[in-house]
Each structure stands twice: as C-alpha cells, then as structure tokens.
## 1
Amino acid sequence: MDSQITLLFQIKPSSGIPIYRQVVDQIQRLVASGALKAGDELPSVRQVAGHFEVNPMTISKAYSLLEAVGVLERVRGKGMIVAPDQAATRSLKKRMELVEPILREAATQANQLGLPMGAVLETLAGYLEEDSK
Amino acid sequence: MSEVALKLERVQKRFGKKQVLKGVDLSVPAGTILGLIGKNGAGKSTLIKCLLGLLKTDSGNAAVFGDSSWNLSPRTKQRIGYVPQTFTGFRWMKVETMLDYTGAFYSTWNQKKADALLLEWDLDPGARIGRMSEGERQKLSIIQALGHEPDLLIFDEPVASLDPLARRQFLKQLIDLNMNENRTMLFSTHITSDLERVAGDIAILKDGVIAYEGDMASLQDRIRRLHISSDRDLPSPLSTPKAIRTVVNGSSATVTVDGLGDDEIRKIQADLSARITVEQLNLEEIFLEVHR
C-alpha cells in the first residue's frame, strides 16, 4: 500500500499551496483522468498521514471535502472509495475547471513577457500532442 | 465537546522593564498539534514556562487541563511531558541511569517504549551524557518526555540540534502519537517546514500577543501576495484594502494582503485596469511578511 500512496500523490509542504488543497486537487485530477476508477479504495487517512509525515487532520479534511463534492464516498469497513457515479466529475466542464488555474497563470506570464498569442498556443498544442503519445 | 488542554487568558509577564507578554489569549483543544512561532525574544519560552507553572504570570490566567498552571496538581503534572530548550538532566549520569531516574517519578513510565526509542535513535544506553553531542542530548530529552506517555507534550525548540534524519524520525513519532493516542502537542520552532507538515494549528507570537492563530490552510488563505502589473504607472502611494505591505515600482507593484477575498481582488484589477497574479505563500514567507 505504501508504494501505492507514493504513486498516487506527492505532497510538497513548502510550496505555498495548503497541503489539504494539494491532496484534493491531485485526487480530483486522478479521478477525472480515469487513473482512479469508481469503486477504487483510497489509502486510509492514517496511512497517508504516516507515509508523508503530515498532520492526520489535514488529510481527513481533504477526504471530507472530496466526499462533500461527490468525488469520494465513505463505505463502512472499507474507508473511502471513489464514488460510483462520476458523471459529474467526468464532464468536460468539470475537467476544464481543473486545468483552468494553470492555464490562467500561463496566460498571465505569457502576457507579461509580451509573447504573441499564436506562438503560445502553438507551443501548448505541441505539448498536448507530445503528451498524448 | 473535546477537553481544553491549554488555556491562556490575558496573560502578562514582565522581566524588569521588559513587558514580554502583553495579554496572551490562547485556547488549545485536546488532540491538537499547535506550532508556536515568533522571533527570537518574542516570548515563546516565557509563554511555555507560564503554562507549565515554571514562571508565575503577573496577571491573567494560565491553565493545563483546567488546572491552574501555578498550582498544578500531581495528577495533571503526570499528564505533561516537557522538552526544554536546553538539556536540564545530569551530565555525569549515563543514559540508562538518567532514564531510570526520570522513570522513578512517574507511575505510567513505559520502559519498553524508552528502550525502543533509544534503539531507533541510535543512543547508547551506557554512554556518559556529558560526552554526548548536543543533538544526542536533545534526543535523550525527548525520550525522557515521551517515556511516561503523557497526554500533553510541550517542546521548546525540540529540533534545533537534530540532523535532518533525526528530525524526520521525531516528526514521525509526533504524528504516530497524535494519530494513535490523540495526544496534544505544543511546539515552538524556527523550522517552519516542519510545522507545515505536522502542525494542525499555528500561533504567531508577536509584540507580546498572539498576532495570528488558526489552522495552517486558513493562514495561507489569509496572507497572500498580489503581483500587480499595468501598462501605465500605478498610483503612488497605492492604497489597497487589507494591505499589510505595499511596494510600488512604476507600473508594477507587490502587495501583501491579509484576508482579501477573490472578489475584492477582481475589483481592484478592474479599478486599476491592471493584471493581478496571486501568489500563495509558505509559512516561512508568511512569517517574514507579518514581521516586516
């Protein structure tokens, strides 16, 4: 299970992004991409907190938030699983929302550097193609 | 309702002319890991000593598990483990003798646990304390404080002389104790990255009062840095609501804000017709920002 946790997510304590946010974002992305499927069991709060040496309350807060938005479901005896109905998470709109902050940030930086839109879009298109191979 | 482990109400403490604590209010529910940060000389150790009844407060109330700090009952004392800033044991003793001595004071002393920690932390039970390094003495202090399995652990700069490996082992211990046995912990430190990991709540002691208190995530949501850039020169002075520090440099500016909402940020963006990027800060940066 330990190796599975490390494969699932990364935690960077000093990145400036609250740790619970890091966990929420990563699990949402994993579910949206299909890497985590409906019914998959998540490592327990205890395992995650112990593995990354972070406060258990932080992880439990992240799980509760994901439960509240319907990404995860609490199952007696099993802990948290990926909720069976992921239609909401899988919708195009929902998935777009997840990349929006990074795209917005990229746009700001490109503008600050005075880059032409065409060149930026072309580069992004290149990365998209490269990554999907 | 969970039990209140620590409580300070309007606590004041003066040394000579220096008013160190100017009315500290703090309430810590049982099961919390609270990180206490503040500049050198801010009064972190004084605050801790007032809580433990090692110093008498000039005014206000300090209590541990509802028991007044200045008159802690033996029962409450048994529930506390304390690691002071500097080693206070006997340097002429051997490690095992020191632990025997400490253990004799507690009815709940767990020798098995102490032995396991000695092994894990690579301390030789037969070593003479005076000949050990500062870091090894710090490890021993921590074992002394954990050995009787207290409900409340108070650490004053516990990791200052520990190497990164020992520090991580120590943090792991804290997490395990908190998770398995719901222990309450207060620790003061300058190593903010450790607090980001393990502390549920953060308290910043500044100018004799608790300037900020809350969970790590809400602190990060409150104190943020805006990078404003415009095509024209920005007004100077630039007045931004809830700003705690503003630096304007022609058409760009950096503004640190305390509790400014996203809607308000969008409004500023529109008012100035400028671009704003929001930078999230880590605890070290937040610490620096609130002290500038």
Note: The CA atoms of residues 67 and 126 of chain A lie 36 Å apart.
## 2
Amino acid sequence: MTDDTRNKKTQDRPSGFGNPWLQLGLSVVCVLVSEFLLKRGATDVAEPQSAFSWTGINGLASPLVWWAILLIVASFVSWLYVLRYIPLTVAFPLSRVVDILVPLGCWIFLGESISALRWCGIALVIIGLALVAKPVAEIEERL
Amino acid sequence: MSFLAFFFIVASLLSFVVAQLILKRAMEVSATSGLRNSRFVSLVAIGVALMTVSFFLTLGLLQRFDLSYLYPFQGLSVIFITITAAAVLKEKLSVRLTIGALLISAGIVLVSLS
C-alpha cells in the first residue's frame, strides 16, 4: 500500500461513533473487562489434573466465561472495523495498552500495591505507546 | 515450565498472530471489493476459527498458571505482529514504530516479572 492510498483512507474515515480511534478504545475496554472475567471464570472451574482441560473447553461451565465471550465478540467487531482504517503495525501495539490497564485497575480499584519494578514496566509501555502514536497524530494534523 | 505448557503457549500465540494477519488482510479486501465476496468471507472465517483455537488454548492455560505468568508471552505478540505485518502485509515500519513496539514488549515483561 502506498502512502497516497493510506492517506486517502485516513481522509475517508468516518467521525462520531464510527471514528476508528473511538472503536479502538471500545475494543480495549471490552478486552480489559473480559480478561478479569476469564481469569475468575477459569479459576472457578479449574481441573488441572484432567488432560482434557488443556483444551480449555471445560471453562464453558462457568457463566463468567460466557460473559467474557460476549465482550470478546463485541471487541472483535470493533477491532475488525479498526483494521479497516488503521495499519496493523500501529493499531496492534496501541491495543496492548490493556496490558498496563490491568495492573493499574488492580491498583486503583482493588487497592493492590505496585512495586518499583512494575512502575518501571508501566512507564516503558507508556513511552512505547507514545512513540507508536506520535506519527499517527502527525498524519491526522496534516489533513 | 513443562514441555507441554511451552507447546500450548506457543500454539496459542501463533494462532493469535496468524489470525490477526488474516483478519487485517480480510478488511483490506473488503475496502476494495465490499463485504459480499467469497474471498472476504473465507478469510474472516479462517481468522475467526484461529482466534477461537487461541481462545480455548488460553482458557486451558489460565486454569494452570497465573495471569501474570502468561503476560510476558502476550508482550511477545506485539513484536511478532509488528514484524510479520511489515513483512507479509508490506506495511511501512519506521524506526520509531520498531522502538515503540520493543519498549511496549519490554514494559509488559517487566510488569509481569514484578
């Protein structure tokens, strides 16, 4: 894909609820909540002794897992929409903001403590996200 | 980590990365030739199938390991997808994007180590 076609696509992108950046945000929130639900659900029905449970299918016994699946389907629809407008090299690294939102969520809402090393990791992710997001912001400004 | 655990972690990561590439390809097809064509439908179907495989393998892993233990491997997916998207989908990969992706991965690993 050349620069011209990519810029044209960015120009064509819809605003409001159809804004791909808003959809990327929605997708991230759905994944964030589903991660907590999945971990809780999987732990509730865990059978580490059985070899069949490597397939994860026994996880379907937990209602929390079904709620998580619902959220994953929602995030998937937003994500497909995002992929239509944003290159994967930009969208995917940005979507991993969820990996620091999980520990931050535990800190803010559950009162868990965050060690110095963990703060360093969170800082690295934020700097990385800024680096990935910067060229995008410049493209948007030019238009 | 047992060989079995390693195998399932790699399998879930690999199916996830390939699914993302196929889905991105599907949406590129849809941008030029619309949603009602067999190429788009089959690409999305393969992508969804791979995502499903990755989902259930992850669910199996979550029953055995802490979320924080499985996190670094999710961090690796950022590197894998950035590299393969540039190589396979011919997306432009600037130095800035590469450094950004590396920092995000390193940060995720640090978060899970602590």
Note: The helical segments of chain A are 3-12, 20-44, 63-85, 88-95, 98-110, 116-142.
## 3
Amino acid sequence: MTELPRIPASGGCRDTPILKERGQREVFCGLTGIIWLHRKMQDAFFLVVGSRTCAHLLQSAAGVMIFAEPRFGTAILEESDLAGLADAHDELDREVARLLSRRPDIRQLFLVGSCPSEVIKIDLARAAERLSKVHSPHVRVLNYSGSGIETTFTQGEDACLASMVPELATTDARELVLVGALPDVVEDQALGLLEAMGIGQVRCLPARRADAEPAIGPNTVFALTQPFLGDTHAALERRGARHIPAPFPFGDEGTTAWLRAVADEFGVSDEVFESVTAAPRARARKAIAAQAAELNGKSVFFFPDSQLEVPLARFLTRECGMDAIEIGSPFIHKGLVGPDLDLIAPGPVISEGQDVDRQLDRARAAAPDLTVCGLGLANPLEAEGLATKWAIELVFTPVHFYEQAGDLAGLFSRPLRRKAKLKLEAAE
Amino acid sequence: MKLTVWTYEGPPHVGAMRVATGMKGLHYVLHAPQGDTYADLLFTMIERRDHRPPVSYTTFQARDLGSDTATLFKTACQDAYDRFKPQAIIVGASCTAELIQDDPGGLAATMGLPVPVIPLELPSYQRKENFGADETFFQIVRHLAQPQERTAQITANLLGATGLGFRHRDDIEEVTALLHDLGIGVNVIAPLNATPADIARLPAAHFNVLMYPETGEAAARWLERSHGQPFTKIVPIGVGATRDFIEEVRGLTGVTAKADESRLRLPWYSSSVDSTYLTGKRVFIFGDATHVKAAARIARDEMGFEVAGLGCYNREFARDIRALAKEYGVEPLISDDYLEVERAIEIAQPEMILGTQMERHIGKRLGIPCAVISAPVHVQDFPARYSPQMGWEGANVLFDTLVHPLVMGLEEHLLHMFREDFEFHDDAGPSHHGGKAAPRAPVAEAEVGVTAQEAPDQVRGEAGIHVVWLPAAEKELKKIPFFVRGKARKNTETFASERGVAEISVETLYEAKAHYAR
C-alpha cells in the first residue's frame, strides 16, 4: 500500500516564525525566466522593453549563446524615448512589426516590462491590446512584467503564465491542468503516469505551442508543478478552476504525495495507484539511495533564489538525511508550499527576503557542509572553504518526478564528492 | 528604441564595476533595483574571482519607490562603509536609478564619511560599458592623484587594465617584463590590483603606458594635462607593434637599452615552410578597436593573411577604424548590431574570423573557423596558463591562436587530393579538433540555387546581374573542400557578374579559378 508521508510528530514547520529580511538582495529579476520559457514555448517570442542592462542580464544569465538568433530580444530604450522626443508606443509598434515580419513562425509575442519601463510607466497592457488587433489572428500579443522592482527570478514565469490565463478559452469539461514549465521529457513522464492511472485529457500550461493551450472553467482542477506560481494560482482560481494542494513532485516522497493528491481527486483506486507507481518509485528510491549515502548527516544552508528552497529542503531532509540549518526563500507562499513545510521537522531557520551580508555572516558562523546559493556567491564561498551548489542549475535541469529523483540528489552530492576527491596538497 | 539580440557591451555601470572589482580597497555603492546584482556573476563565474565584487546594491523594489529610496541609498552607503572600511567609495546609479533621480553623489556628500567619496555620472541610455570603465577610472584618478616628485629611477604607470579584461592579467606581466628589459620600473598598475593609495602615487611616474585606450584614455589624457606625464600611443600587440612601442618608449624616456627578443618565436614560425599554407588566407576581423587594429597588422604583415573585412563595435573609435579600413582597402564596419556583423561576414566569406565570442558563434553557424582576439569575454578567455596578447610572448600566443582553428598544411593538401573520400571528406572538419566542426553543408545546400538571388549585393555585381548556379556547377562546387568553398563561390559569382554571365557552369567555375589563381 502507498505510504503517504507522515507529518513529523513535532508538527512540521508551517507555523515556525519566519525571519523576514529587507536588505540587499542578491537575486535575479524575473526577466531571467525568459531563458527557459522561450525554449518551452516554441512559437513564442519574448520582447523585453528595457535597457541595455536587461539585454546584458539575459545574455549573461544564458551563460553561453547557444542560439544565433534566439526567440527573445530587448527593445533598448534610448535617450530620445525618455525625453519624450520619440513616442515610445510608435517606436514599439515599429520594432514589433519589423520583428514579426522577420519571424513568421511566431504565434505569441510577450511584451515584457522591465524596471525602466515600469518606472517611466510605459503602458504595455495598452500596447499589447493595440498590437494584438494589428497582428491578429496570426499573432497574439500579451504582456507581463519581469522587472526587478516587482519580480524575483522565477516570479517572471509566474507573471508570464498569469498573463496567459485570462486569454485561455472557457470550457465546462472536467479536466486536469498541470501548471508550470517543465522540460518536455519530464512533462511526458508525468503525463504518462497520469494516463496509466486512467486520468485522461490532461493539459499543460504553458503548452509547447499556442494551439495546444488548455481551456479553463468551473470544472477545471489544476496541480502546480512549481512552487513559485502564486499569481497564476490566483488567476486560475478567478476563472473558477480549483487547486489540488500537495507537496511538490521532487524525489520519491514528493512525487508520490503529489500524484496521490491528483489520483484522489480523480478517484483512482489504491490498487491502480500502486501498480502504476511501484516500479518508478522503486527506481527513484534506489537512485536516491546511491546519492544519499554522501548526503546523509550533512548540513545544508539555503540562500534565497528560486522559491524551490522549501520543497527541496523537504526532499533533502526527509529523503537524503540532511540537516537544514537555514531555508531562505525570496518569498514564502504558505498556500503553495504549506504541504512541504508540514513535512519538514522543526529546527531550521526559515527566512524570507534577504540581507545578503547578514545572511553570509550566519552562513559562515554555521559552516554548513553544503550551501545552496546563486552564482554571485558560489565561488567566493568556495574560496572560503564552503562547498556550494549553485541554485540556478536546479531550475535549468530536469529534476521533477521519479525518474529524475536520483539526478536531483546528485546535484547536491556532486559538490561534496568533488571536494572529497580533489587531492591538491603535497603527498608529504 | 533599438531591438537587440546580443550585446557587445554591457551598460556603463558594469564598466564602473570592472574598475571597482579590479581595484582593492575601493567600494562601489550602486543605486540599483533588485536583479542588477546579476553583474556579480560576470566576475565570480566568467573570471572565476574568489571574492564578491566590492559592490553594495540598494536593490530597491516597487514598494520603495513610493516611499524613500534616498534614505535607502544612504543606509546602504553607511552600511557599506561600516562593514568594508574602504579607502575610498565610488557612488552612482544604474539605468533604473538614473530615472528616479535620487542623486547618489549629492546624497553621499552630505553623509560626512571619513573617506573620499567619488560621484559617477554615467548616462545609461547613451553610453556603454567601455565608457563607464574609462570615465570611472578617470574620476578616481582625478579625485585621488596627488602632485609629487618623480621617482629617481625612470618609471611608468600601466593604465587601463580592469577586472574582466581580455587577457589583462597576463598583459601587465608581459609589459612589466618588457619595460624591465629597458631598465624602466613600474610605478603603479591601475586600475587592476591598485588601491586608492596607489592611485594617489600615479604622478610619481615619468610617463604612462596606455595599455587599453578603451578603458584608460581619459585618465591618461588628464595625467598628461595636469601632471605633465606623456603617454604611449602604440599598443604593443604583435611583433611590429611591440618593436614600435619600444622605440616610442625610448623616445619618451631617452633610454637606449635594447630589448631582449630571445623569447620571440613568431617571426621564425611564420617564415618556416610549414607556414606557407597560411599565405593569403582571407580573414575578417571584428572586436574592440584596439585589438582589431593590432590584429589587422599581425594578420597582414606577420602571418601573411589577407584582410577581407574589418570593424569594431565601439563607436568611440570609429574614426580610427575607418582610417584603418582605408589603409587595408576594405569597407569598415562600425556596428554593435550582432546580426549586421553576421551579415557582413556572410557576404565577405572569409576563411577565418578573428573576432570576439560573438563572432565565434557566427562562425559556428556559418561553418567558418574563428580565433577570439577581443572582448566581450567568456570563461574560455581566462585560461589557467599564462596567455598574454602583448609583448613577445603575446606575439607567440597570437601565432598559435591564429593557426589553431585552421586545417593544417598537409591535411589541407590531402583534403584537396581526396575530395570525395568516404572518410576524409570535408564535413569531418580539421582532424586536430575534437568533435565534428559544425558543417556549412546543410545551410549551403539549402541556399544553393537561390544563393544568387538572395545573396548579397556583390553577387549582383556592378552590372546588377543576377547569377544562377547550374546544377553541374553546383555539384562541382560541393567537391571543393569546405574551408575554401565559400571563397570559391564568392569569387566565381563575382567573376560571373563582372562579365555579365548569368549562369554559372562548371566552365565558369574553373575560369574563375584560373582568373583568381595566385
């Protein structure tokens, strides 16, 4: 029988007081999400209306330029746009027309707001409406803000998906929608498991192509695959859809609990659930065990990054035997990560927001075995002797569901294994 | 508004960060929204720095805009001073903070901090990274340099090296050694590794070596004007330029010592028979103006290449590059539009690109080898080994850099001899490179037939004639090894168009070959 995860006897972390920090934040802005969203949505183009800094961020965050002409770009504001010499809307219309004529394969265009466009109040909603009229039916134009003054890293995906929700068609069908951009291979695995349980007609948001988007209505139920989708969650509920709360599908336990919640919603029997999940579950356990040997009993400290921190801390503490010292997250949405918090034994500091220098002081004092942090902090901390795992890899790597559970654990064990493996001292 | 896909330069505050991060004992308080902290990773990841850039960001958010971002800035400034105790502070705004007009310089000035506070005005919507670095270094020098006696020994300052600079780390060693050979000491190297106290000592040197005009020229000019220090105009990249640089230094200082050239290998390597195959290789050169100027001279005079096109992305140096292009008989390309650069390279059909990491990607797409000679940088541009561009060792490094991407001499012959060998075919790419080079073939095949209509103005030629490849000629063209196919196609099309030949046959192909034979 399925063992459902037990809430720790001591009651979990849901009601642990949160340390709220409001100092310097060492995090990406929401524009960064474009890096994976443009690969996921194969007929979408993301046009940032911003500054040279935005363009430089996208380029730097992308790390390497894999694509000669990617499906994102920046309309860089210039002096004349700010001085009002040029009507920013005319300029935008011109750039969009040029872009779409060069890329006839584009069916969805996202105008993405940035810090400068928000501060000078360029009304991108109005622009999107106007441009949608001009370019419909071939291209749908939407807008959202990925600005750093409003969004932190993965919140960009949330803002993007939330902007799509009001545009989705209406349906009365009882359908399940999986919400969150997953690598195609992972998405297919999830769909395969659900189908095997007899849950048919599962849709995904975002869809790979515009014509495959889900419709939403009062009989829609949805499950989130990512913990950072608070606004999308709210937008779907406004359309009458109902959320299936669950721990997030990381590791054996998270995936099982997540699938179980969905299965319960659709009345799947224990026998069917067991027969579908037993084999992949066993594989996941075996794969995790291989990595967990190195993680067991080690301590971990999370700097805020992607909002994946709470579910990952749940995975590392319960399935890999680690001790969490601090679980820092840019934003803690208890409605979404509550089920994961319930499963984390009390003890770790739960912090929201950041004051990076103070947090670094805490990390140094705690001397964790592994520190999960952003790229700006990782090498400096390594140089101080702390093993680190750069957090962005957790967003750019397939880590959800059973078949990736071992890989997920491996992302954390590899830095420790490497540290142990390197012999750079004299042999004596 | 200008649509940009990839950028050659970051915003000007990133230039300021390159100065601040290169220096020691300096702190940069940057009024900027959350997210602008991404710039830290340029230094910690690309350059593998083992400490955080000395930058405090105010990271204001939307909720702060309605209240008091000025207080937020002052708090950040005070916290930075208390925590890091720098010898001097630079303060400024990123693009978004520039719009909210809090005046970081003015705010910091009222705080009575016990160290010099240097305000930066970097117009984010007009200027770019190199300007930001140049202006920041200039302001630091202007605020901190103190009048003083010259050193007893003849000494120079080395100006312009920054954090995240293209081989700056190794260039300063090489130039230091070169000056040492001439009996000249180094007073201060700045901004890289200098403290504010070192900056104060700049005027003690007898002259300045302006290593990187992009990031050091404003400071060099100011030191010349205010402290009577002349500066060198020649950047010692390449054999000829290094020799000219030594002459220039002798002229400025009156030293007569000879430089020891025993480490220099480029001249012999380039003269040795093995290098014959390099003769007349057509190269397209693109990057920052300083490295492009140097690379053009090396390519033509020291490697025996033919310069098929050149340009730079930093408009500040457009005049120099136009003059250079004239000297080399090519059209200058002054652009920071990646797609425009790609088009120009596609038209020129060079056998190799000397460019930046951006051109390396263009080359990958077009199937043209590329040697990286200039910023913008990539983690690969910070090799673990000593790898300067300047001086004698720099010339040696450049010889290797420029030869490595090419198919080697004997291999080139074999590829010609066994054109359609089942293993030894052109899609296999140069044998000394791991993995298969991205073949041009798929692109080329799709284009064949339409090339004549679609391709560039040159194809239309002076007579404005559209030329079409006949199938047999097309097939013959494909038998030509990949590394010369582009040139053969271009030459044939030009040849045909100049003669009013509308259809290219196998005959035309070989007539063109004979015509262009060298």
Note: Chain B touches chain A through 60 residues (CB under 8 Å).
